[in-house]
Amino acid sequence: MRLKLVTPPSVEPVTLAEAKLYLRVVDSTEDAMISSMITAARVKCEAEFDRCFINTTWDLFFDGWPNDNAPIPTAWPGLVGTISVVRFPRANLVSVDAVNYVDGAGITQLLDPSAYLVATGAPGMMMPAYLRTWPPTRIQLGSVVIRFTAGYGATADDVPITDKQAVLMMTAMMYENRGESAFEVPKFITDLLAAGDWGSYS
């Protein structure tokens, strides 16, 4: 499984003005730097619990359909088959926008949305529709590509206050520790982020 960013969020969860107020910065000489720190702080905070604050579009690549051998009933009474469930690595899942796969002839096909079911939210999941299976794919890297959108919403107002506060605090850490090559997200910030922890897949 591989993940690629397609469309970044259109806004940040906190504005430059909010960050400058938090940092007690009154002039504009460092505006560009602070703006970049807001973005870096947001990315760092999102990565802590594999989430997106503002709606973000991703491509999820598989080298064939995942197979977790989950038992399901089949069309024949008394028989049980297995099915593969796609588990999305970013929360909250808003939508599955397109599913493309490479068929046995090497042609990229768009899978009809009627062929699968989607559970949005956290965790986000997708599986074939009732009594359907995933179509065969060519054995190659990236033979299945699923484009999806994840986030709390399209605006900063959709982001929980605890996450916005965490971004502000992380921005302040970056601002006050310029020159540091790397540092971990401190516990007092992860504690704020943990309020929206959606768990993980086993």
What do you see in this structure?
- The chain is α+β, with helices and mostly antiparallel strands and 202 residues long.
- It folds into 2 domains: 2-53 and 154-196, Phage gp6-like head-tail connector protein (Hypothetical protein yqbg, Orthogonal Bundle), CATH 1.10.3230.30; 56-150, no CATH class.
- It has helices at residues 16-23, 31-48, 161-176, 187-193; strands spanning 2-7, 56-62, 70-73, 80-83, 86-87, 93-102, 108-110, 116-119, 125-128, 144-150.
- The strands form 3 sheets. Strands 1-2-10-6-7 form a 5-stranded antiparallel beta sheet, with no helix packed on it. A 3-stranded antiparallel beta sheet has the order 5-9-8, with no helix packed on it.
- The radius of gyration is 21 Å and the shape is elongated.
- It starts with a strand and ends in a 9-residue tail after the last helix.
- Residues 73-81 have low confidence and may be disordered.
